[in-house]
Amino acid sequence: MLQIERLNESNVIGAAELEKSNFSNPWSVEALSAEINNPDALYLVVKDVSETGEESVIAMAGLIISYDTADVANVSVSEKYRRQNIAYDLLTKLMDEGRQIGVKDFTLEVRENNAPARNLYEKLGFKYEGTRPKFYTNPVEGAAIYWLRTKEV
Ligand SMILES: CC(C)(COP(=O)(O)OP(=O)(O)OC[C@H]1O[C@@H](n2cnc3c(N)ncnc32)[C@H](O)[C@@H]1OP(=O)(O)O)[C@@H](O)C(=O)NCCC(=O)NCCS
User: Collapsing DSSP states into helix, strand and coil, what is residue 83?
Assistant: First the structure.
């Protein structure tokens, strides 16, 4: 059974393992732990809880909030759980929670060749606004910048 909860001390190790399996420059347990009590961060994880009570973190996404703008970060879903709308539903919930605490605009960057993620963000309504060349390392790659704005410009 899938359950969504805040990133916390009991799931942060699983969240870091998920990072490691999905990214070439993963966030460490320490880096993720710093977000647990960060008043400007809102992180959600999805756990799969088995009938015997075993839990594994299978998805995560976060917001780093600055006034009424949030950076969407650390979006990932464990490989065997992909293509089940888990990322879409998680981001929809995360952004709803962000709006409830005053976020109006969302932005993110994504490796320009990461078609699955770009499709996901476009399906959520994000608009591509440009590329920052050589933004990423390991391997070097440009970042496509996206925005989802809800306030008047
Ligand atoms: C990108 C990622 C988070 C998507 O997670 P997911 O749970 O499989 O995505 P969803 O099932 O919610 O898919 C929602 C939409 O995303 C797009 N999408 C997801 N996976 C895709 C794929 N492999 N190819 C093309 N489009 C894809 C589609 O538009 C999809 O909508 P559809 O099913 O109606 O076509 C997942 O592939 C992942 O963790 N990748 C590795 C980490 C990563 O790249 N994170 C993003 C960093 S910016």
Answer: coil
Taking the CA of residue 77 as reference, the ligand 1 atom at the shortest distance is: 39
**Tokens representing residue 44 in the block:** 């959600």
Instruction: Please give the Cα distance from 105 to 27 (Å, whole number).
Output: 24
Task: Please check whether residue 82 is in contact with residue 92, taking contact to mean a CB–CB distance below 8 angstroms.
Answer: no
Per residue of the chain (153 residues), what is the pLDDT tens digit? 999 999 999 999 999 999 999 999 999 999 999 999 999 999 999 999 999 999 999 999 999 999 999 999 999 999 999 999 999 999 999 999 999 999 999 999 999 999 999 999 999 999 999 999 999 999 999 999 999 998 654
Structure tokens at 64: 């780093």
* Atom of ligand 1 lying closest to residue 74 CA: 47
Where do the domains of the chain lie, and which CATH numbers do they carry? 2-149 (3.40.630.30)
Give the closest residue (by CA) to ligand 1 atom 1.
117
Q: Which two tokens stand for residue 108?
A: 């993110």
3-state DSSP call for residue 57?
A: strand
